[in-house]
Amino acid sequence: MLSFLLRRIVIAIPTVILISIFVFGLQKLLPGDPILAMAGEERDPEVIEFLREKYRLNDPIPVQYLNWIKGVLTGDLGISLRTNQPVTELIGEKLPVTIQLAVMALIFALVIGIPAGILSAVKKGTVTDYIANVVALSGLSIPNFWLGIMLILLVAVKWRLLPASGYVPLSEDFSRSITTMIMPAFVLGTALAATLMRHTRSAMLGVLKSDYVRTARAKGLAERRVILKHAFRNALTPIVTLTALLFGELVAGAVLTEQIFTIPGFGKLVVDAVFNRDYAVVQGIVLVTAVGFIVMNILADAAYFVLNPRLRKQ
Amino acid sequence: MAQPATPQTIDPQSAADPVLSARPENRVWKKFRSHKSAMLGGFLVGFFILMALMAPILPIPDPVATDWGAVRKAPSAAHPFGTDEIGRDVLSRLVWGARASLMAGVVSVGIALLAGVPLGILAGYFGGWTDSVISRCTEALLAAPFLILAIALAAFLGPSLGNAMIAIGLSATPIFIRLTRGQVISVKAEDYVEGAHATGLPTHRILTRYIFPNILPPVLVQATLTIATAIIAEASLSFLGLGQQPPAPSWGSMLNTAKNFLSQAPWMALWPGIAIFLVVLGFNLLGDGLRDALDPREH
C-alpha cells in the first residue's frame, strides 16, 4: 500500500512541475507591462528600474521562474495587487467557506445520485428507469447558475422559505450557517447527482450480470440483500473513484454558485480577481485547484486500493 | 492508388437491397432513427440552428433597440416574452442569442478538435518520447478544472466572445488529445494496419487512410457531447461578464442582468435559461444516441 502510494506521488511530480510552468507562463502571456502600471503617471525611469530590480524582472525568464517556484514551495504565492494581502492568506480565508459548500453539495449528490442509480439499474427498462434517466440528463443539461436564479425566485422571493443569499460562518451560528447554505449546496449538487446516478447505474448493471449475484439469488437470499450486500458493495469501487474525481466539477461549479448566492468563498475570490486584474490571485487559485485535483486523484487511487481486496494482496 | 479505408461504398440503389442494407452506414442510420431520444435531440438542435440562421428574416424587433417607453414590461401581444431593463424585446434577444451560443459551442469544439486530434494521433502512433511529452502536458492541463482554466484564460486574453471561444477550446483540447491517443493505440494494433505497414505504405498514408477513419466515431460522439459542455461554459463566462459583451445578445449575459431584477421582472430570467437547457439537452441526447448507434458492441 505504502509503496503503491509513493509510486503514485512520484508519478505526479512531473505533472505538478508542468502545471507550475503553465501557471507561470500565463503571467508572461499578459499584454502590457505591470511595472509601467505600478510606476504611475510620470513613469520615472529610475522608479521603473527600481521596481524591475525589486521584483527581479531583469533576470532571465527561467531564473524568474525558479525564484517564483521557490516562493511557492515555501507557501508564498505573491501579494494581491488589490488588497495587498498575501495570496496564500486570502486563499486560506476563503477556502473553508467553499469547503463547507462543497461538502454539503456532495452530500446532496450522494444522497440523490446513488439510490437513484441503484433503483434505475434494478428496474432497468421500466418507467422508473426511464424517469430517472430523463431527470439525470436534465440535471446535466441545466446550467446550474440558472437553476440557482430560479430557486431564489421561488424559494426565497416568492415563498420566503430560505434566505436568498449571504453566508454565516459555521462557528458563529451553526443552524443558520446550514440553512443559508442549503439552496446553494442543492444547486451545486444536482449536476453531480446526475453524473453519479449515471455511473452508479452502469456500474450496478455490470455487477448485476455477474455470476456471484446469480449464485446469491440461487441460494435463496432476499433480493434486498443481494442488491445491497453483494451487488452494491462491488459496484462501490468505481463510484468512490468517481466521487473523488468530481472535485474539479465541484470547484468549477462553486465559482458560479457563489456568484449567484453572493457567498464570499473561493469562487467569488477568483471572479473578483479576474475583474480587478489581480493576476497573482488568479495564478494562485489555478495552481491550488490543480494540485488539489492531483491530490484527490491519488486519494481516489488509494481508495480503489483499499476497497478492492484483489489489489491489496499483490 | 486510392485504397478505401473500409470496404464500403454507398450507391443509392443498394439502400433498398436487404442484404446490402446491412452495411455499417445503413445500420448506424437505422439504429439512430429508431433511437427516440436521439431523434428528439436532433430535432432540438435542428430547431435552434434554424432559429439562429433565420434570425435576420424573422418578424421580430431589433435585438439591441431600446425603448424607454417599454421598460421591463411583462409578456404581452407586442412582446410575447416581455422586455428587459432598457426596453429591449426579450424574444428577439433570445433568437439572436442563439447565434452566440451555437457559435461558441461549434467554434470552440472546432478549436479543440484541430489542436487535440493531431496531437493525440502523434502521441498514440509514434509513442516514445513524443507520447511522454504530450501525455504529461495533457495530464497537467486536465488537472485544472475546465471552467477555472477557461476563466483564467479568458481573464488573461481579455473579455470578448472570440476570446471566450479560444479559452473554452483550449480548455477542452486535452480531452480530445487523450481520447484520440487511446483510440489510435488500439487501432494501431489491428491486423489491417500491420498489413498496410508490411506493404510499405508511407506513414502519412496509413494515418489518413487507415487510422483516421477508424478513430472518427468516438471522436465524433465526444465532440457532440463537448459542444453541450462548451455552450454551458460560454453561457457561464458570459454570465460572469467574460464572454459576449453588451449590447450584443447572449443567453448568459441576459441571465446576468436578469438576476438583478428577479422580483420585478422574472420573465427576463426564465427564457434564456430554458433556451440554454433545451439546446444543451439536445446536444447531450444527440451525443448519447450517436454513441449507441456507433458502438459496434451493440450491433
From TrEMBL, chain A:
Signal peptide: none annotated. It is a multi-pass membrane protein. Residues 95-300 form the ABC transmembrane type-1 domain. The keyword Amino-acid biosynthesis does not apply. It is found in: Cell membrane. InterPro entries: BPD_transp_1_N, MetI-like, MetI-like_sf. Pfam families: BPD_transp_1, BPD_transp_1_N. One of its GO terms (molecular function) is dipeptide transmembrane transporter activity. GO terms for cellular component: plasma membrane. The keyword Aminoacyl-tRNA synthetase does not apply. Keywords: Cell membrane, Membrane, Transmembrane, Transmembrane helix, Transport. The chain crosses the membrane at residues 9-26, 99-122, 134-157, 177-196, 235-261, 281-307. Belongs to the binding-protein-dependent transport system permease family. This is ABC transporter membrane spanning protein. It comes from Profundibacterium mesophilum KAUST100406-0324. The lineage of its organism: Bacteria, Pseudomonadati, Pseudomonadota, Alphaproteobacteria, Rhodobacterales.
From TrEMBL, chain B:
It comes from the Bacteria. Residues 98-287 form the ABC transmembrane type-1 domain. SUPFAM superfamilies: MetI-like. Belongs to the binding-protein-dependent transport system permease family. It is found in: Cell membrane. This is ABC transporter membrane spanning protein. It is a multi-pass membrane protein. One of its GO terms (cellular component) is plasma membrane. Keywords: Cell membrane, Membrane, Transmembrane, Transmembrane helix, Transport. The chain crosses the membrane at residues 37-58, 102-128, 140-158, 164-180, 219-244, 264-287. GO terms for biological process: transmembrane transport. InterPro entries: BP-dependent_transpt_permease, MetI-like, MetI-like_sf, OppC_N.
